[in-house]
Amino acid sequence: MTDFATLLQPDRGQPAHLIHVVHPDRWADWLAHQPQRIRTTVAAHRLTGKPGDRAVLPGESPDDWSMLLVCNEAVTSPWRIASLGAGLPEGHYRLAEGPVGAAGLGWLLAQHRFTRYAAGGDVGPRVLLTDDPAHIDETVRLAKATAWVRDLVNTGAGDLGPEQLEAEADALAKRHGATLTVTRGDALATGYPMIHAVGQAAARDRQPRLIEVEWGNPSHPRIALVGKGVCFDTGGLDIKPSAGMRLMKKDMGGAAHVLALAGLVMEARLPVRLHLLIPAVENSIAGNAFRPGDVLRTRKGLTVENTNTDAEGRLILGDALTKAGEDQPELILDFATLTGAARVALGPDLPPLFTDDDALAADLLGAGEQLHDPMWRLPLWNAYDELLKSDIADMVNAPEGGFAGAITAALFLRRFVPKDTAWAHLDVFAWRPTAKAGRPKGGDAYALRAAFAVLQKRYARP
């Protein structure tokens, strides 16, 4: 992984090229106060002060150049100078005005490359100097967590199955002195029957499992993080078309998010008793695959009529949420690449948030807005609970008609969460279909930084 710690350094007056970040509203005033050589350069580039305008500005000597960027991003945005972090030559840089602040994160992430299958560029490090060294370590941790999510999601399913996901959790546990517990294969059949049913058709070296990590003082408040770990999703016997299967390596994106979030919690040593749960499966096709019309038992004791084998994520999460609730946590957060309906409703950039806890919703939405890591609350509309009715079982996993698909999926999950436990469900896409500054096309983290900020605030050390 990129050595982010070398790319954000304390400003001790080292030689560095200046970066001028000018808001379009300040363009005319800024330009009027520049020396003639700068105004001449701006005119030669035909810059008008619109967002995205940029140029290399000459200084008084050949090495004395600076960079101009016209940007209408808020000063609190991590993406304010991210486009420069990816495009400037190797060297040291500092902002001409104002603190680095959140922009340091975008600067770091702009230089991250997924290099498992192809070498990265040969450009050397671009180091940003900051006059706020106290925030360097946390910025680096956030960059590493985000890059970890990206790398996991970008990895092909042939190289990242349930076994490899377990290895990632094992390495995380060992780094922080946590305890790893794994229930695999046929051992799931009695305790976690839905996880077993979904994953039973996979090859023996990709057998399903429930991965658990526990960390922290048992006397501290207990929180649970649950992440969907479908390492590849064929759709099962309700098979996806090839176009729908193309990106299904990313169906473990929820697991990637909670691994990264758990890492942030442990690195910050928050005073919590952390329980991380990842049901890891491959939804495959074979003679022993679970079938449409099968009635599945659950850890909670409910029965589920399986109306669609491609609605498997909510099944494995149901058993994992039940297990999480048995230990009476005061908070459960789950992340899952759960429904296409969420993408239809809100697009790829805006994950829907579901919770019955208004205070928790306010905290998450507020943190998302402050950190430019947004989400949007959708309702757990009680009237739609009837859409989950089955003629032969306690419920179905996928109602007919497709109405309110993201909501009914969340309502399904809610049935496996204790009523007195604060719970939030985030239906994340985990994928960026088009590149943006600091955010390349491919796997990405959504609502990760906001969720961590909420945990930091709720469980701050005295």
UniProtKB/TrEMBL annotation:
PROSITE patterns: CYTOSOL_AP. InterPro entries: Leucine_aapep/pepB (IPR011356), Macro_dom-like (IPR043472), Peptidase_M17_C (IPR000819), Peptidase_M17_N_1 (IPR048816). It is an enzyme of class 3 (hydrolase). Its EC number is 3.4.11.1. One of its GO terms (molecular function) is manganese ion binding. Signal peptide: none annotated. SUPFAM superfamilies: Zn-dependent exopeptidases. This is Leucyl aminopeptidase. It comes from Sphingomonas jinjuensis.
